[in-house]
Amino acid sequence: MDSKEAIIQATITLIEEKGEHLEEITVRDICKNAGVGLGLVNYHFGSKEKLIEMCVECIINGIVERFQNIREETENLPSFEQLEYLGNMTLDFLFEHFVVSKISVLTDMRTPKSNDNTHRTYAAYLPLVAACRPDWDKPTVKRKTFCLITIMQQIFLRYETISKMLDIDLSQKDNRRKFHTQILHDILEV
């Protein structure tokens, strides 16, 4: 394994170990675990922050890939229930892995890419929205799917403000699920 890959693997391991305490990860820890010199983090990635953003993207990519397996596991459910299940799973992941998820969402907003995690999530949801509303044309399905993903990101990023504004505690899983179901009904017009 080359030094760059060793740094990536060491950083992902530290992110998984530290959980919500990413501020505790140091360049020294990364390099020690990777078995490389201190200057290689900056050489390969520019900064610890950029390295962590890249590693978070890799972690989230893995989660998005698992959506396909989950869709296959739930294919016997009606389309709406599949979409509801996937949405609840997504929101639960975001809230349970708050720091990593926040880095991922904000990185996608700050530096959007054609195949970033937001786009990959959109692509995973698109066929489910289409299946829920086969009467909609393609542009409508794309627009409504975009709205759904954007709302879910806002539920996550602005949950405290939204909780106060709508008098619902979105940090609570049951409340979040009820709110998500209502959002699906609103967007899908069902």
TrEMBL record:
<keyword id="KW-0238">DNA-binding</keyword>
<feature type="domain" description="HTH tetR-type">
    <location>
        <begin position="1"/>
        <end position="63"/>
    </location>
</feature>
<dbReference type="InterPro" id="IPR050624">
    <property type="entry name" value="HTH-type_Tx_Regulator"/>
</dbReference>
<dbReference type="Pfam" id="PF00440">
    <property type="entry name" value="TetR_N"/>
</dbReference>
<dbReference type="InterPro" id="IPR001647">
    <property type="entry name" value="HTH_TetR"/>
</dbReference>
<protein>
    <submittedName>
        <fullName>TetR/AcrR family transcriptional regulator</fullName>
    </submittedName>
</protein>
<dbReference type="GO" id="GO:0003677">
    <property type="term" value="F:DNA binding"/>
</dbReference>
<feature type="DNA-binding region" description="H-T-H motif">
    <location>
        <begin position="26"/>
        <end position="45"/>
    </location>
</feature>
<dbReference type="InterPro" id="IPR009057">
    <property type="entry name" value="Homeodomain-like_sf"/>
</dbReference>
